[in-house]
Write a structure and sequence with these properties.
By secondary structure, the protein is α/β, with parallel strands linked by helices. It has 15 helices and 15 strands.
Amino acid sequence: MAARYQVTGATAVEISASIESGIRRADLAPGDPLPPVRALATALAVSPATVSRAYAELRQRGLVVTAGRHGTRVRPRPPVAARRAALRPPPAPGLRDLSRGEPDPRLLPPLRPHLATLADSAGEPVGYPDVGVLPEMAAAARARLAADGVPAAEVTLTGGALDGIERLLGAHLRPGDPVAVEDPGWASLLDLLAALGLRPIGVPVDDDGPIVTGVAAALAAGARALIVTSRAQNPTGAALSADRAGALRALLAGHADVLLIEDDHAAELARVPLHPLAGATTNWAFLRSVSKPFGPDLRLAVLAGDETTVARVAGRARVGAGWVSTVLQRLVLSLWRDPAVAALVDRAAGSYERRRDGLMAALADRGLPAHGRSGINVWLPVTDETVASTVLRDAGWLAAPGALYRIAGPPALRITVSSLDEAELPALADVLARAARPAPPGGFTA
């Protein structure tokens, strides 16, 4: 155990809480040994039985493992992990922040008129027996998904894409199970896997999505689930092509027992065709969030899937949050039905596309290959993330280091284009060129 961290407590609950706190703050690292039971009992002036109960609770929650003579150690991937978001440098006064990964607030549909209409049309308060997925909401969701080729006979709602993924994984997997995920991939998803005690297996990604050989290797390694971003992949902007989707479907046909989760978080903002994998395995789910196109505060996602999977998610929701607010459902339904809102979302998609493509073109002119086939981010490989971030900060810019998103992939920066103006692209590309390939330091010459 790290010498700098001292376990405290006089009861089993206090001792386990102290150790959990050390894991959360990274004072106790994965693999660190805990003191032997009798040694810790002596140090804390408690009985060995008290320490044994504390360790048993930690084992039950997946925070530690006991391996015979090797004693008790912090689990290699404990489900109380430091958030990857903490790796993002904090914004500083005067810096243009391109690290956030959020849509441009100026391009989001206004909610005020729809909220006003909702207030005027609100009926009597809804009681507990009457809540759930509104029939008109389910019908609209099915129609929108079916238009993109997603089978949607069974649908439910979750509080956003990450909430849906958590419910899916909790319904099908147990702590310690391996999960195939994109590498680089969504930082919040990697945090979620750590919190659930699941083991990520990284799958390399190119512009067309997860590489087939990488998925095959993950499945051969025992992955119980595969999570794929349909388009606007965070952080690389990858989007599943028709050929890649076909190849993945053929591969998954031989792994029908794998839980397949597709995340179409960008939806209408992606501006590339959707090539879904839905139905390629026995248990599958397709998630479409409304946050990116319509506003981050709208915590709602549509989840379609096979009958068993949807029933499990809906069942788990009933013993937890219960349901997605019917007020929120009616608001989203109002936004979906408004042609003016659809035009605003399409305008936003076009604006992001011009900024993203413009930045990649400017980088290509400077000899820098970047990635961003769809969505609001550009992924730029660099020689050294720390050096690149420093060069950017010195020039007044802030980007997200690739370490937030990588498992084993090479270094890079993620640049969010949503707050950029097109006139700024050449100057930013000049700075990124210096950051990606910094000049070697000077030295003595003969």
